């Protein structure tokens, strides 16, 4: 973000040293910083001159950071590529063990997905919103519970998938498929949505005129953007928290 405003913009590039950056954050030119409880609310769009993603740099990355990146890796597959989803599910252990062949292949495929979306919608006016899957619920969880970004996104994906079923967009077996894969990868912990989450979401940059642009699933590998009223959202939050409270 500094490179985009210093001297009205200077050239820059990214050398990505985390899995989260290699599969997501370094691709697409989005910049942002938080303001209070709002994630990335101040920022610009500024494309780098180059992005270097070398999976050898992940050799000393802490396991918690690898898990965080794995969450975003799953996200790309869940919105666009069902085959990649099954491959990540099967190879998550090898990816966490830093298998170079596995990591290289999965990172490359995730980058292709994000780069393809960004190329057609660089300023997030349409299809690029799909990349926010899991983030609308994930950001409040990340802020409230102080958990790594990608882990919060994984939990946010499950909640968004539950919302998809609740609204009749997706069949329950698809939710169970996603839930099983993320749980097996060690990405899920039960969290209640924090008090006031509906207000936080309705004041987010993705909200417009009393409704919210939400990324829902039709199936694993196929995401859609739907507008949801704040009233509907609050009803779902009440349903979700009541269900989770009873199961804990």
| Run of helices and strands | HEHEEEHHHHHHHEEEH
Percent of residues in helices comes to 40-55%
Strand ordering within the main sheet:
5-6-7
Distance between the termini: 42 Å
Number of domains: 1
Q: What kind of sheet is the major sheet?
A: 3 strands, antiparallel
Q: Tell me the name of the CATH homologous superfamily.
A: Dehydroquinate synthase-like - alpha domain
- What structural category do the secondary elements indicate? alpha+beta
CATH architecture: Up-down Bundle
Q: State the shape.
A: globular
What percentage of the residues does DSSP assign to strands (E)? 5-15%
Q: How many runs of DSSP E, i.e. beta strands?
A: 7
Examine the coordinates and then state which fold CATH places here, giving the name of the CATH topology: Dehydroquinate synthase-like, alpha domain
CATH class: Mainly Alpha
Low-confidence stretches: none
Distinct helical segment count:
10
Q: Measured on Cα atoms, how large is the radius of gyration?
A: 17 Å
Q: Give the overall average pLDDT.
A: 94
Explain the layout of strands and helices:
Layout: H1 2-5, E1 14-16, H2 19-25, E2 33-35, E3 38-42, E4 51-53, H3 63-80, H4 82-96, H5 100-120, H6 135-145, H7 149-166, H8 172-184, H9 197-202, E5 207-208, E6 211-219, E7 222-229, H10 230-247
Parallel strand pairs: 1-4
Antiparallel strand pairs: 2-3, 5-6, 6-7
Explain the overall architecture.
- With 248 residues, the protein is an alpha+beta fold.
- It has a single domain (61-247), classed as Dehydroquinate synthase-like - alpha domain (Dehydroquinate synthase-like, alpha domain, Up-down Bundle).
- The chain is built from 10 helices and 7 strands.
- It has helices at residues 2-5, 19-25, 63-80, 82-96, 100-120, 135-145, 149-166, 172-184, 197-202, 230-247; strands at 14-16, 33-35, 38-42, 51-53, 207-208, 211-219, 222-229.
- A 3-stranded antiparallel β-sheet has the order 5-6-7. A two-stranded parallel ribbon has the order 1-4. The chain has a two-stranded antiparallel sheet with strand order 2-3.
- The termini are far apart.
- The model has no long low-confidence stretch (mean pLDDT 94).
């Amino acid at each position: 973000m500094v490179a985009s405003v210093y001297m009205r913009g200077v050239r820059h590039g990214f050398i990505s040293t985390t899995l989260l950056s290699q599969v997501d954050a370094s691709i697409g030119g989005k910049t942002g910083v938080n303001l209070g409880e709002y994630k990335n609310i101040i920022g610009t769009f500024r494309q780098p001159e180059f992005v270097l993603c070398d999976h050898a740099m992940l050799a000393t990355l802490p396991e918690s950071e690898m898990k965080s990146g794995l969450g975003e890796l799953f996200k790309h597959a869940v919105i666009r590529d069902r085959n990649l989803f099954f491959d990540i599910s099967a190879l998550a252990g090898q990816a966490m063990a830093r298998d170079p062949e596995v990591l290289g292949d999965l990172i490359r495929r995730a980058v292709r997905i994000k780069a393809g979306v960004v190329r057609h919608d660089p300023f997030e006016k349409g299809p690029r919103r799909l990349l926010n899957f899991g983030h609308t619920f994930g950001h409040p969880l990340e802020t409230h519970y102080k958990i790594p970004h990608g882990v919060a996104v994984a939990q946010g994906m499950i909640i968004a998938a539950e919302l998809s079923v609740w609204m009749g967009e997706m069949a329950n077996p698809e939710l169970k498929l996603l839930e099983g894969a993320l749980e097996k990868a060690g990405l899920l912990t039960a969290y209640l949505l924090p008090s006031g989450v509906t207000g936080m979401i309705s004041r987010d940059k993705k909200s417009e005129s009393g409704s919210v642009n939400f990324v829902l699933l039709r199936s694993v590998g196929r995401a859609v953007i739907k507008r949801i009223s704040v009233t509907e959202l609050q009803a779902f939050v009440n349903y979700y928290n009541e269900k989770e409270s009873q199961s804990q």
